[in-house]
Amino acid sequence: MHDRKTLSRGNNGLGQLLIPLIALAILILFNLFRDPGFYAIGISVNNSGNKVLTGNIISVIDSASELAIIAMGMTIVTAATGGQDISVGAVGTIAGSIFVKILKGFAGINIWTVLLGILVCCIVTVLFTSFNGMLVSVFRIQPMIATLILFSCGRSIAYWIIGSATPQIISPIISAMGMTIPGIPIPTPIFGVILVALVLVLLFRFTTLRLYTESVGVNQGAARLNGINPVAIKMLSFVILGICVAIAGIIGTCRMGQVSLKTLLVDIEMDAILAVAIGGNSLGGGRFRIGASVLGAYIIQMLTTTLLAMRVDPVNIKAYKAVMIIIIVVAGSPVIKRKLSQLWNRLRAGRAKVAVQKGGR
Amino acid sequence: MQDDIILTMRGICKVFPGVKALSNVDFTLRRGKIHALMGENGAGKSTLIKVLTGVYSMDGGEIRIEGHDSPIIIHSPQEAQSYGISTVYQEISLCPNLTVAENMYIGRDSAHTVNWKQREKKAGELLDSLGIPARPRQQLASCSLAVQQMVAIARAVDTECKVLILDEPTSSLDDKEVEMLFGLMRELKSRGVGIVFVTHFLEQVYEVSDQITVLRNGELVGEYDVEKLPQVELVAKMMGKDLNDLAELEQFGKKSVPGDEVIYEAQELSSTESKPFDFRIRKGEVNGFTGLLGSGRSESVRAIFGADHVTGGKVKIRGKDVKISNPHDAMKNGVGYLPEDRKRDGIIADLSVRDNIILALQVLNGMGRPISRQKAEEFADEYIEALNIKTASTETPVGSLSGGNQQKVILARWLLTHPDYLILDEPTRGIDVGTKLEIQKLVLKLASENMSVTFISSEIEEMLRTCSRLIVMRDRNIVGELKGEELTQANVMNTIAGGERQNA
Amino acid sequence: MKKDITSGAPRIREPLNDTQLLMTITICIFVAMYAAAMIFMRGGFLKAQQFFDLLNDNAYLIIISCSLTIVMIGGGINISVGGVISLTVMACAMYLESSSSTSILTTLLLALGIGLAFGLLQGFLISYLEIQPFIVTLAGMFLARGLTTILSVNPVKVTHERFLNLVKTKVEIAWLGYTAKNGALIPAKLEIGAVVALMVVVLVYLMLRYTRLGRNIYAIGGNQQSALMLGINVKLTRFWSYVLSGSLSGLAGFVFLMHKPAGNASVALRSEMDAIASSIIGGTLLTGGVGNVIGSFFGTMILGTIQKIIALSPLNASWWQEMANGAMLGLFIMLQSVILMRRHNKKH
User: Fold this and answer.
1) Domain residue limits, chain C
2) Helix axes A65-81, A290-309, angle to 10 degrees
3) Any idea what the Cα angle at residue B426 is, between residues B422 and B429, rounded to 5°?
4) Is A199 exposed, middle or buried (0-12, 13-18, 19+ CB in 10 A)?
5) Tell me: the pLDDT tens digits for B306-319?
């Protein structure tokens, strides 16, 4: 009895975090040796006169916020459907433009209009991701292809919503949401991540959603025979993703004070999928760890910031990212795993034989 | 007579880790004969075929084929084909998106380019000569399953084919299509091809076969000429008549006496996979559905549980009308179902033993009321202990357990929901003898605690030991119901085999 | 029983199979759309040159649509094609600029070599290490785009004389020309790139239809398990499909350079999505096994025509273009889904 308990702790799936933690450790050590000043944190005063924390670490955590939030939603969709939504960037832009559109509809921006904007924005965004969800769960189209539709026309829908003017929204509330709240030196988007993470933790703590999602992702047929409705679970995963995307879109919009149709959340779908994969979650669905994906998101941002600190041109970062993806997926590939375990077994067998021979003498 | 033999297998042995799949099996095939290979689940038919086609390597014995003086060793299906051994599997292994002609020749030509005209002409001639109603240029997906099956056969026999293995070719065909297939088989037979015919349908065996080899538990029961083996005897040989486990039987408690209350009652219940049937079960009763594989026994219980799309019928539970159109409905009404295919429909392989055990109860509790981690651990520990599940921890992925222990996990899952009516479809399949007995005892114990149980097994002794009533199915119809004194091996076999050929 | 159904009967016209059905729909839509443009937009659409411009502008897209069609028929995906184009264009432009004596042939070989290298690497990772094609080619896309900017962040304009001569060389077809206002006959002009693209379509069509490799690609896309049972080397076939796809992307890069002789980091941005859309619109089934490059060609032409119509209308071009692409894509995905479901139902 006691044995079983101890074993269970060792078997808790923490091994999943091994590769990402090693990657993060390498990045941290690398920066430490390269330039210890990388980790310096200072306090400065920003344009609006607030005191803010500055430094690379703060910037990593701050600028990874949208990615981290979307990666959380992407993890759930991946777990339930075994596929990924590539329209998150485009739909996030739609979210941003809905938000701006609503705020522009009122004479002044106050806390209530902002809250209304957030609410409507979440609802509309969820409608869009539910469209994806419907194609995936009801029509059984592969997620990547189904979401290709909104991927290719989402930003145009955003344009259609907001028009070519891309109006600025200037308000202390907006800048507080996108940058810092006066009196609190920590960038607000970080709180956004914490909020979303908290909500998801509570959701998975107080409902059975994790068990349902993992069951559908691993074995849809068996899940159905145990009374779970796979269509509903898949739809639900897209709804959760929708809310994450809406929040990320709003944060991105507030950061810039406007919706920039061409640059808001651009390429974030690729990074989000990457974050899920780096976190060691299977892209084929099933068991998942949201925290691991968030870790993946910060690793990506850490890599980016490190490269920037090394004066690598921002546009070149993609190449390094690609090399990292290839190393990580090759390390996790089924064939390599099989080969390694074979090698390991052979080594062990060899050692056992040697031991036997020694014992014989 | 000796010259007619084209294939002999002698003393074939095959061992899988922990299981002896084949021990000392002989098999002989003669030119121009159709030879049926019979046996229930786990008898070793498919293992024997896989050895013959080079999918598995054998651990002992020898294979000789006409034209080769020394025994041959077959390493791959391709090599088997070069010896003239071709196989057509139950699952049609052709590409539905290609044309008929392509499916017949793809993967065989060594030429780098495709001559469509020539290929289609060749295909057309072969199809014509075999009387297969398919056009070479037709997309395979537009053919019926029977024709697809026949195209697969045409592909198989186009090469120098001496031995044709048909692995359950008729399981998804209707009567007319089966006739078409038989026509083709007779045609090939007249050309001197030796055919190994694997099937579960007794009628079909008697219709086309010349000889029958029966396997049971990986051992050879015997080889017989069709005329000399009445259907009843065949069934007896497949199922194993000798009840040498009498001592074991004594250990079993008395069968429980069912109460009067009818727990579940269905009228004219039908699904997309099953024909309409009536069924009822009383409180504390253990009943069984029996019949050979493919007789519709599993499809019937799936309809009861709402696992397939239910198309009609009335269902009453404890006398009240209820609608069961999906598994969740059934579960809410206190019905549990352990599916036939454990790997495909039962376990969630990547999830832990604990999660697998609490799954059904959790679903019944609803989304908003998760079972706490601590409670889940308690449940898991309780059932791991009660059912003696051998697992390293509650956290171990269930996929890494042995078959018997996986089955116990699924049993635990349903027991935890305390159902009124539990359906167990082949709970003892593919697991070791000890666990089989444990499960049977458990069934009787549950019944004595007033649970109604439907128990399905390929092994008739198991059912006789546990069930107080047996529903016999053949060809997707209920053909008889046995209870009390009628529950004897002979009776069951007679009913399964049907009266028609008893005196042949 | 024998001989009552097929033999002796004259060669029966087969009903349209899935490939042909989807392709026919695509061609009809293209013809209808172009005819409508001729009637309602008039102007340029009445000239043959408009059609040729469609080919000229979309030559590289036609080639990568073929490239995508090959891997999609095999049941895979390749989203690195746009990246490979940008890398090829940049590398070739810089190579041409490195000296005025560089030969055009070696430039072409460089382009093909880059494509081939990507094809080999991705094909190996996907077929032999069994990594998901989406992730592998996503990495390929990042790598190619990143390498492009590493080569040069700034645009590189080609001034290589012989190459510019090649760019200017056009196939002139006098009888399809028109008479300008000043009375001069202006022949219809087709760029070399467009000719190459058309040749690629024909060659890939022949490859897919008449070679063993081509048929094997269909087989593995139709049912991988069956293909294995039918004696096809699934891994090797899949590997080759990516090698071909990669090489074609390299060629597309060269064709792009012949159309716009300048290297630029943002060349062919998101063209992989246009190519996927073209393939799907052209009748390549999402699940693999069904598809045809002729259909993909018309798929590209449909997207190109929409683009032309929108460009000639007062609408804001790029946004409406994307909307129309999305709507088209949605329509065809639904259509395929319906066809697949119909086929699925028939089996039960």
Assistant:
1) 45-308+319-332
2) 140
3) 140
4) middle
5) 999 899 899 999 98
| pLDDT given at position C335 | 82
Structure tokens at C39: 């009637």
The percent of residues above 90 in pLDDT, for chain B, comes to 39
Tell me the one-letter amino acid at C181: K
Instruction: Give the class (CATH, top level) of B2-229.
Output: alpha beta
Residue B174: predicted pLDDT:
72
Chains that touch A (3 or more CB pairs under 8 A): B, C
pLDDT tens digits for A304-346?
899 888 888 888 888 888 888 788 778 777 788 788 888 888 8
Number of neighbours of residue C179 by Cβ within 10 angstroms: 9
Distances (CA, A) of C54 to B154, B217, C190, C255, C266: 48, 70, 10, 14, 21
Could you give the number of structural domains in chain A?
A: 1
Residue ranges making up the domain that contains A191: 14-312
Please name which of C293, C330, C130 lies closest in space to residue C218, comparing C-alpha atoms: C293
SS3 content of chain B, % helix, strand, coil (to 5): 40, 25, 35
- Percent of residues, chain C, with pLDDT higher than 70: 94
Q: For the domain that residue A302 is a member of, what is the CATH number? A: 1.10.3470
Strands, DSSP E only, in chain C?
A: 156-157, 170-179, 185-191, 262-263
Selected residue of C16, C73, C209, C212 to mutate for chain B interface (largest B Cβ count, 10 A): C212
Spatial neighbors of B321 by CB under 8 A, at least 6 apart, are: B314, B315
Q: Where would I find the H helices in B159-198?
A: 175-190
Please determine, for the modelled complex, whether the ipTM score is greater than 0.90.
no
> Which contiguous run of DSSP H or E holds residue A17?
none
Q: Specify the DSSP class assigned to residue B397.
A: B
pTM comes to: 0.83
Task: For CA atoms B159, B160, B164, B167, give the dihedral sign.
Answer: negative
Residue A346 has what pLDDT?
85
Residue A357 lies in a domain: no
Domain boundaries, chain B: 2-229, 246-497
- Look up residue B31 and give its two tokens: 């030119």
User: Which amino acid would we find at residue A286?
Assistant: G
Write the secondary structure of C70-139 as one string of H (helix), E (strand) and C (coil).
Answer: HHHHCCCCCCCHHHHHHHHHHHHHHHHHHCCCCCHHHHHHHHHHHHHHHHHHHHHHHHHCCCCHHHHHHH
d(CA B215, CA B49): 12
Position C111 scores a pLDDT of 97
pLDDT digits (tens, 9 = 90+) for B324-359: 999 999 999 999 999 988 888 999 989 999 999 999
Residues A318, A329: Cα–Cα separation, whole Å: 16
Whether the CB of C252 is below 8 Å from some CB of chain A: the reply is no
What integer pLDDT is reported at residue A49 of this predicted model?
Answer: 73
pLDDT attached to residue B246: 39
In three-state form (DSSP H/G/I as H, E/B as E, the rest C), the secondary structure along B15-43 is EECCEEEEEEEEEEEECCCEEEEECCCCC
Q: Which is more confidently placed, C112 or A166?
A: C112
In this complex, do A277 and C77 lie within 8 Å of one another by their Cβ atoms? no
Asked whether the beta carbons of residue B98 and residue C12 sit closer than 8 angstroms, the reply is no
Instruction: Tell me the percentage of chain A whose pLDDT exceeds 90.
Output: 45
Q: Which residues of C touch B183 (CB under 8 A)?
A: 1
Which chains have 3+ CB pairs within 8 A of B?
Answer: A, C
Using a 10 angstrom Cβ sphere, with 0-12 exposed, 13-18 middle and 19 or more buried, the burial of residue B207 is middle
Going by pLDDT thresholds of 50, 70 and 90, the confidence category of residue B323 is: very high
Query: Domain spanning C45-308+319-332 has what CATH number?
Result: 1.10.3470
Q: What share of chain C is helix, strand, coil (3-state, %, to 5)?
A: 70, 5, 25
Which string of DSSP letters, residue by residue, matches C308-330? HHHHHSSS-HHHHHHHHHHHHHH
The Cα of C179 is separated from the nearest Cα of chain A by a number of Å equal to: 39
Fold of B246-497: Rossmann fold (3.40.50)
Instruction: Give the pLDDT of residue A242.
Output: 97
